[in-house]
Amino acid sequence: PGWNTYSFTYGFIRCRIPHTFQNFVEHIFDPNGYDVLAFDVSSHWVSPPVPQVPFTVTSKMLQVPGFYTRFRIAYILFAPVRIVQDMERPISTVPPVVYIPRLHISAYVLAAPSFLFAFRYYAPSPSWRGSPVNAPCAPDFLTSLKNPASCDDLGDDLPQITRVDDSRDLQDLISRIGSPLM
């Protein structure tokens, strides 16, 4: 009531996967040896009903071979809630997965948000250009939404959200990713 919300339909997030601490392999965390301890991307909604689907993709999920390009670029797709609910497996704790033939990688599909995507970075290294501390600070949340970080602030590490509102369906979206026009 009274909230201006987004009306996302289809699109994707393109992000470079930062180097993160691998707790199953390494035993001592050295913040200078990693870009960030961990990160995740979540889709958020303003008002009920909140879709009953997994809404977060983590750095560990994106670091699985086959989910990123040789340049450590990963894609997270988003689609209308009903589409994602129809793709959902019973009792699943991760978002559905699709294959992007043009890039030869798989991608998770999140339900499109009605409010925002949240990008959370845990213990970023001060020397990493993509650290959120390198983005201009705003005095409050609303001002920060109106003045998002740019490539000048975070370089190639800035996640890029691309809306493809004229996409007919998920297969149409997938066919466009990686094309010269995207």
What's the N-to-C terminus distance?
35 Å
Helix content: 10-25%
Strand segment tally: 8
Q: In sequence order, what are the helices and strands, one letter per element?
A: EEEHEHEEEHHEH
What is the percentage of strand-forming residues? 15-25%
Low-confidence stretches: none
Overall radius of gyration: 17 Å
Report the principal-axis shape: globular
* Number of contiguous helices: 5
Biggest sheet strand line-up: 5-6-4-1-8
- The whole-number mean of residue pLDDT values reads 84
Structural class: alpha+beta
| Most strands sheet | 5 strands, mixed
Question: Overview of this structure, please?
Answer:
The structure is a single chain. Helix content is 15%, strand content 25%. The chain has helices at 59-62, 81-87, 141-146, 151-154, 170-176, and strands at 11-16, 38-44, 56-58, 73-79, 97-100, 105-111, 116-122, 160-163. The strands form two sheets. Strands 5-6-4-1-8 form a five-stranded mixed beta sheet. It has a three-stranded antiparallel beta sheet with strand order 3-2-7. The chain is globular.
Walk me through the topology:
Layout (H helix, E strand, L loop, with lengths): L10 E6 L21 E7 L11 E3 H4 L10 E7 L1 H7 L9 E4 L4 E7 L4 E7 L18 H6 L4 H4 L5 E4 L6 H7 L6
Parallel strand pairs: 4-6
Antiparallel strand pairs: 1-4, 1-8, 2-3, 2-7, 5-6
In short:
This protein has 182 residues and is α+β, with helices and mostly antiparallel strands.
